What does this fold into?
Amino acid sequence: MMALSLAELLRRAEEHGVDRLPVRKTLNLYGLTLYEWLHLLNSQGWVCGCCKKGRGNAPFNIDHHHVKRWRKLPKEERKKYVRGILCWRCNKIVVASRLTAEESTRITTYLKKYEARRKNADRSRSHS
It folds into this structure.
């Protein structure tokens, strides 16, 4: 598969309503280029990597693994800890809670069990 050019990624971003690009200072903080940021967002389908929604009124955020002394790492090292692009809500509320994947899986299992119980209870009531 041929890599997309920066011009093509910018065109696709505009098609998907991505009109607020990160500033150079933000990209430098995470060790990314504009091309890498656009490529990452393109790989996510131009939506938040967590909730799968478009950005809404707020700009997308760069999500990264919070490791000790992250800011002191060289840019090329910081880039390795970028997890994806998220909407403001998922970055500040969902992922910022610092849940591990294991904890998240347990919460998902817990909620699915509740939803199954509710569904069964609703079915039982409708058959009564």
In short: The CA atoms of residues 104 and 110 lie 10 Å apart. The chain has a mean pLDDT of 88. The helical segments are 6-15, 24-30, 34-43, 75-79, 88-94, 101-126. The chain has two domains: 6-97, 98-128.
